């Protein structure tokens, strides 16, 4: 059996163990989903979903990978010590099985980022301009929303004043 196959097998055993403990403690699963709500698609946050669904979604979003579960460990450290302990133990086992391959993957990831930045530079793409345009768009939307709120508030005040004036006129006419 190759080191990668062995590492994947260990990862599967880890997922099974984590799945079992989250089945025993459904409140912990809810806490996990709540803690990860900004990192997971909404369908994964449904109550019927299991830990493996969360794990697979985090893998797809590249928050975790084979032997690299730091993100998950950080989350577990906030909500469930037993899950963190299991994950850290298996992470060490898998890293040991994979050895050099993980550091090569990290190096490849850094190379990909450098190539991306280099491409942006060569094509003279100004990310700050793109980000600035997006920010300005949302600022304009917020400004428009604020103006709408002010108009509605003014209309409500005018209606309230009219209602008060109408009530005062009715009272005065009755007194005559």
What does this structure look like?
Helix 4 runs antiparallel to helix 5. The termini are far apart. The protein folds into two domains: 3-121; 127-176. It has 176 residues and is mainly alpha-helical. It has seven helices and no strands. It is 81% helix and 0% strand. The model has no long low-confidence stretch (mean pLDDT 82).
Principal-axis shape equals flat
Main sheet attributes: strand count, strand direction, barrel closure: none
Which structural class do you get from the secondary structure elements?
Answer: mainly alpha
Work out the strand percent: under 5%
Any idea what the radius of gyration is? 28 Å
Helix/strand order: HHHHHHH
Instruction: Tell me the count of domains.
Output: 2
Compute the separation of the termini in Å: 103 Å
**Roughly how much helix do the residues carry, as a percent range?**
over 70%
Low-confidence stretches: none
Q: How many DSSP helices? A: 7
Number of strands: 0
Mean pLDDT: 82
């Amino acid at each position: 059996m190759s080191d990668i196959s062995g590492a994947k097998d260990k990862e599967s055993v880890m997922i099974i163990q984590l799945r079992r403990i989250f089945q025993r403690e459904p409140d912990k699963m809810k806490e996990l989903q709540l803690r990860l709500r900004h990192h997971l698609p909404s369908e994964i946050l449904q109550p019927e979903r299991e830990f493996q669904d969360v794990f697979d979604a985090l893998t797809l979003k590249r928050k975790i990978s084979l032997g690299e579960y730091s993100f998950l460990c950080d989350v577990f450290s906030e909500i469930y010590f037993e899950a963190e302990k299991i994950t850290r133990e298996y992470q060490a086992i898998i890293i040991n099985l994979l050895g050099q391959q993980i550091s090569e993957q990290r190096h490849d990831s850094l190379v990909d980022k450098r190539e991306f930045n280099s491409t942006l530079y060569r094509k003279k793409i100004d990310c700050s301009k793109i980000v600035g345009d997006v920010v300005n768009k949302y600022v304009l939307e917020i400004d428009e929303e604020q103006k709408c709120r002010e108009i509605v508030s003014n209309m409500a005040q005018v209606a309230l004043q009219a209602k008060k004036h109408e009530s005062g006129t009715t009272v005065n006419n009755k007194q005559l």
